Amino acid sequence: MPDEKQIAEVMQAYVDAVSGDDVEKILELFAGDGVVEDPVGSEPHVGHDALREFYQMAVDSVEKMVLEGNVRAREKWGACAMLAYPKGMDLRMVIETLDVMEFNEEGKITRMTAYWGDGNMRQL
C-alpha cells in the first residue's frame, strides 16, 4: 500500500503530466482498469482506452494545472484542491476542483473523482 508521501508524489505527477500535455504519463499513473468521473455525477471513463480519449481532450483544453495546498492522504486515498487554467484564456480564467483519488497496492490510481461545477469556474 502506498504511504502518504507516495500518494502526494503521484498526485503531483498527475498535475505535472496534465500541464505537460503528456497523456501517456497520465495513463502510467492509473491501473489498467482505472476509473475517472470528472466531474462527479458524469458518465465514468473506465480503462486505459477510455482514459486516453478523456485525457487527450483534457490536455488539449488545459494550459496548466496546479495543486492548491497540500495533498490530504490516508490509507489508500488522496485528495487535493486543484486549479485548472483553460488554454486560450491567458490564465485569466480558472476552474477550481477537488480531486479524490483511490490507490491500489502498487500505488496506481484505481479511481479519480473530480468535484466541481459551474460555480467553480471563475474569471481572474
Count of domains: 1
User: Tell me about the biggest sheet?
Assistant: 7 strands, mixed
- CA-CA gap between termini: 39 Å
Pattern of helices and strands: HHEEHEEEEE
**What portion of residues is helical?**
25-40%
Compact summary:
With 124 residues, the protein is of the alpha+beta class. The chain has helices at residues 4-19, 23-28, 47-61; strands at residues 30-37, 45-46, 62-74, 77-86, 93-103, 109-115, 121-123. The model has no long low-confidence stretch (mean pLDDT 96).
Could you explain the architecture of this structure?
- The protein has 124 residues and is α+β, with helices and mostly antiparallel strands.
- It has a single domain, classed as Nuclear Transport Factor 2, Chain: A (Roll), CATH 3.10.450.
- It has three helices and seven strands.
- Strands 1, 2, 3, 4, 5, 6 and 7 form a seven-stranded mixed β-sheet that branches.
- The longest helix is centred in the first third of the chain and has 16 residues.
- The chain is globular.
- The mean pLDDT is 96.
